[in-house]
Amino acid sequence: MTAQTTDRHGVRVLVLPEQGPVIADEQGALDVIGQAFGEEAELVAIPLARLDPAFTHLASGVAGAIVQKFVNYRMRLVVVGPVEDPSVPLRDWMREANAGRELWFVADLAELDTRLSGART
Hints:
Blueprint: E1 4-8, E2 11-15, H1 26-38, E3 43-47, H2 62-72, E4 76-80, H3 88-98, E5 103-106, H4 109-117
Helix pairs in contact: 1-2
């Protein structure tokens, strides 16, 4: 399965499939960002399963490195999928991120659609 670019509520979104290379570092993030620019996407939706498991362990620095690349290139990032048993720091970070515009954590693409439509979840 390949990535799909769709317009969702007026936002061009690159949706990565569940299967594919694991994004584990800055180079992996840059590869996705380059693909998004090629598709003229404004936002990238990445399944949690495509991110290195260390992403959810904030002390590893993996999440910070990946998210910082998206911020540097002004590309919005959405992590799609439930985070199993998040730590308190991770839960706090997810809540803070979801209050902004640049990084969101959503359970599924339906929740992303709700957020993009302006409706509250």
